[in-house]
Amino acid sequence: MTERSLRVVLAEDSVVLRDGMVELLGARGCEVVATAGTADELLAAVARHRPDVAVVDIRMPPTHTDEGIRAAVEIRATTPEVGVLVFSQHIETVWASRLLAGGATGVGYLLKERVARTSEFVDALRRVAGGGTALDPEVVDRLVRGGRGGRLNTLTPREREVLELMAQGHSNRSVAERLVVSGRAVEKHVAAVFTKFGLPATEADNRRVKAVLAYLSETGG
């Protein structure tokens, strides 16, 4: 059974880079349904095509400051069913926090120079389109270093490591593999995070998402 083609809107003001990405994504089984060179074009394309995911650069015309990520925040607010993957050379911690404030699902933030293979990028696209999270470790680290602390200060170093990996979109199994510990140990650390963040177990609530949101809200400045 073949995997369904991923429908993508691509916002990138560099024509050369944009055309190259269209070709690469097409070769990886993605369908780029529209491209955009400005934030307004991006918003119009998303409204028209309702893609699985929008790939957004932060700095776009006319000022090349934060038009792209502002548009990404608007997409999250108006069409939450569309995944948003920010793909940029820059880290904007304030806007990153706003982007993630609507929920730690269906969102990503990757740095261009740190994506080594096209397959990694497409995997992140599919994860975001499926409601997952794809955050570059450097982005998370910047949020941590710029943060205020709060409940994070109650965590042990290992609990904080586990939470950082959760914020990057890793499952418990993936966390265990990266930290070279048992799955049971990870479960204990995750449970401790939930307890320290005051997140009781209920059928209706996703405590993992809430923990990541609490983490991001305290580290985003």
Automatic annotation (TrEMBL):
InterPro entries: CheY-like_superfamily (IPR011006), NreC/VraR/RcsB-like_REC (IPR058245), Sig_transdc_resp-reg_receiver (IPR001789), Tscrpt_reg_LuxR_C (IPR000792), WalR-like (IPR039420)
Keywords for the protein's UniProt record, in alphabetical order: DNA-binding, Phosphoprotein, Transcription, Transcription regulation
Transcription in keyword set: yes
Domain (Response regulatory): residue spans on this chain: 7-127
4-aspartylphosphate modification, residue list: D57
PROSITE patterns (UniProt xref): HTH_LUXR_2, RESPONSE_REGULATORY
Domain HTH luxR-type: 148-208
A Pfam family hit: GerE
CDD domains documented for this protein: LuxR_C_like (cd06170), REC_NarL-like (cd17535)
Name this polypeptide is given: Response regulator
